[in-house]
């Protein structure tokens, strides 16, 4: 079975009736690129850079970061790579940046909030990413955006990083695309306004589900309540896609839900044509996609969207998934 799946690495990701979906990889290191490439990833949809900052005595320098981003850009061989700026706090901590203990770490000091508070660190990272844009199709992704003001502040720091590079006479792509994670309900609700300020959205279902449902993604005791197929989540997804379409920007999904083949009918129905997932999931999802008829899948998804019960939606999607080989 594994050998058979491996044969799909170079096969195009397309449904039986001709609908293409771009399948790219979530990575946290240069090493992950090997599995991604081996499994036929069409670029990197999410490079989680926090792991570059972890397990070390101090912040990585601009040069150290640049070398890593450049290597990933080169390995992608012209395919897009989406580099997410530092998303620490909550479940991810740095030994050399002691953060205060918080009552609710997931509602606290994390992601873009830290970057906007520590603009020195943020600008260093953006400068390194921009320099890598001279070596591949690099895009920049801001995590945990909850308002237009935060996004404008992040863009201002990006503009400063560009000025700095202009002063140095350094080479970089002035049109580097920038996007935001849609992973906070507020962002999904104001997606129309946010869409006017960016080139793309990447939906982070891991956090979006926890925040929409008020279910801590790390808490075992309530893990059964963490259901990405809850109708409230599906409506947030729909709102986000519609805002993106209205503004003519692209939208992808990069949370765990993207690597779950039961979700395929939802993507087809919602009009999501780009998924990013762990490199280990790529071939399994592609196999399922190749055996899916989009017209049937859409009908299944439409029925799901009418249901108010998360468990029933999940059952329906699971049944549809097990009916294809
Ligand atoms: C997400 O929240 O869905 C996501 C992709 O980011 P992370 O899992 O790194 O928080
Ligand atoms: Mg997240």
**Poorly predicted sequence stretches spanning 5 or more consecutive residues:** none
Mean pLDDT: 96
Task: Please state how the strands of the largest beta sheet are arranged side by side.
Answer: 7-6-5-4-3-2-1-8
List all distinct small molecules, including ions and cofactors, that are bound in this structure: phosphoenolpyruvate, magnesium ion
Number of strands: 8
Proportion of residues in β-strands:
5-15%
Structural class by helix and strand composition = alpha/beta
Query: Any idea what the radius of gyration is?
Result: 19 Å
Please write the string of helix (H) and strand (E) elements: HEHEHHEHHEHEHHEHHEHEHHH
Largest sheet: number of strands, sense, barrel closure? 8 strands, parallel
Count, helices: 15
N→C terminal distance? 12 Å
Please state the overall shape, judged from the principal axes of the Cα atoms: globular
Helix content: 40-55%
Main location: cytoplasm
Family: Belongs to the PEP-utilizing enzyme family.
Enzyme class: transferase
Subcellular location: Cytoplasm
